[in-house]
Amino acid sequence: MPQLRQSALRNRLLAALTAEDFARLAPHLAETPMTIRECVITSDQPIAHAYFLEDGLVSLIADTREGRVEIGLVGREGMIGVPLLLGTDRTPHNAMVQADGTALRIAAAELCAALDASAALRGVLGRYVQTLIVQVGQTVYANADYNIEARLARWILMTQDRLGRDELPITHDFMAMMLGVRRPGVTTALHILEGTRLIQAKRGRVIVLDRAGLMDFASDSYGPAEAEYERLFGEG
Amino acid sequence: MPQLRQSALRNRLLAALTAEDFARLAPHLAETPMTIRECVITSDQPIAHAYFLEDGLVSLIADTREGRVEIGLVGREGMIGVPLLLGTDRTPHNAMVQADGTALRIAAAELCAALDASAALRGVLGRYVQTLIVQVGQTVYANADYNIEARLARWILMTQDRLGRDELPITHDFMAMMLGVRRPGVTTALHILEGTRLIQAKRGRVIVLDRAGLMDFASDSYGPAEAEYERLFGEG
DNA sequence: CGCGTCCAGTACGATTCCGGACAAAGGCGC
DNA sequence: GCGCCTTTGTCCGGAATCGTACTGGACGCG
């Protein structure tokens, strides 16, 4: 495979590694396409690879017999396969692709070997786990204290952050599942956001018009998790 | 301080350590009382110590200007100070004591040194982080898909697990804050649980009468997180 | 033993959101 | 251009929960 140049990567975790750590991982990283609705990790199944996203969007989903909810969102700021960092090869959650993209993936064994060899690598990826915990915690808070419109604004902002574009390829149905609400509830909430010109909704996509306005609308449901990421990776 | 014997400890994480890892930590562990409403970790402040709980209950709380919600619950099955494991010395969350108890605490620097020295220690504590992520994820799910009574049943079960007693020293006000609902909502929900003889409510405490019945009531909101803990620590 | 404080119980209108159903419209394949 | 499937828009009654306020009882303290 072609030589990977660290500076050419979009993944913020790989970019934050020391040159030495990157050199350790690079030989094992393979570019992999991700297509929508694909499950890159399936609940309670062995995790064969970790994925460093270059583009696209993946949801971490808790689903049981009686329903499913999104608990976390990962884009090129993060990675899929956190349980591997934490000493286990499986998890009850699913990781499902929400927007097409590509990832650099590495076999579980290679990642674990690199982790054992480098405290600096453990530090970078550990800090990512911290940001993920804060993100999930923020989701608990948002679901408890905010109405659908605010949570939708938060979700749109998070998605925009991770995709790095203003046009988000998302249907109402998907957003409803992610937020754990009824689909018509999303339709109505989108109309409200559209009415104040914060977004423009088209069939199958949402276009962000006024990011600052969305942040106002989302209030404290958006922000803390993002601040934690910037604190830990902002300089990197 | 007196010699600590690993087999005499109630904390399940310390009990799960190898003898070698325990010996590494033991000289630095100091028994510390925890009193109700004390914040053992304050948001965005440096974390000086990690706490391995021997008894008592601590909540992880996300609070902002506009509200606070519990995102996780820790007892003798766990530890406080997870960010230290993940390469940072602070977090936006608070850790507040909900029931008096004691903990064995260790200075951050000593813990980090031990982590650097032992892959096995990293494994045990990393797996605890995994169980914590699943617990928080389960809270997202419970808040999205279950009514107050079921969530209350879940919370009572989790508290009972962690305290190891049937009598839980908890006021309605506290439960309301933890679940992110109104206080009278808790009163009503408790009456429903009491009506079916699952619990008995007294002033300032709840007594579990029928644990199996509570599990039925909580349905899928309770279980997955606990199964994950047993999978990772069940034999230990 | 009496007072003050914390805690539990109750009420009620307002509001959000659900559950389910159905109709319109966009867009793709043929 | 036609038909079909997906997606979106809309409607309704009903349930859950909220916000707020007030009452009465339990407990601790002096």
Structure description:
Chains A, B: It comes from Methylorubrum suomiense. Chains A, B: Pfam families: cNMP_binding (PF00027), HTH_Crp_2 (PF13545). The structure is a homodimer of 236-residue chains. The first copy, chain A, is α+β, with helices and mostly antiparallel strands and 236 residues long. Chain A has 2 domains: 6-141, Sandwich (Jelly Rolls); 145-233, Arc Repressor Mutant, subunit A (Orthogonal Bundle), CATH 1.10.10. The first copy, chain A, is 46% helix and 23% strand. Chain A has 10 helices and 11 strands. Chain A has helices at 12-16, 19-25, 82-85, 108-117, 119-145, 148-163, 172-179, 183-195, 211-218, 224-233, and strands spanning 30-34, 39-41, 49-53, 57-64, 67-74, 79-80, 94-99, 101-107, 167-168, 199-202, 205-208. In chain A, strands 1-8-3-6 form a 4-stranded antiparallel sheet. Chain A has a 4-stranded antiparallel sheet with strand order 2-7-4-5. In chain A, strands 9-11-10 form a 3-stranded antiparallel sheet. In chain A, helix 5 (119-145) runs antiparallel to helix 10 (224-233), helix 6 (148-163) packs across helix 8 and helix 7 (172-179) crosses helix 8 (183-195). Chain A is globular, with a radius of gyration of 18 Å. The interface between A and B is large, with 47 and 48 residues. Chain A binds a DNA duplex (30 and 30 nucleotides) through helix 8.
Overall number of structural domains of chain A: 2
Structural class of chain A: alpha+beta
Instruction: Tell me the name of the CATH class of the largest domain in chain A.
Output: Mainly Beta
What percent strand of chain A? 15-25%
Number of strands of chain A: 11
CATH superfamily annotation of the largest domain in chain A = Jelly Rolls
Strand order of the largest sheet of chain A: 1-8-3-6
Q: How would you sum up the major sheet of chain A? A: 4 strands, antiparallel
CATH architecture of the largest domain in chain A: Sandwich
**Distance between the amino and carboxyl termini of chain A:** 27 Å
* Shape estimate of chain A: globular
Any idea what the radius of gyration of chain A is?
Answer: 18 Å
- Which regions of chain A are unreliable across 5 or more consecutive residues at pLDDT < 50? none
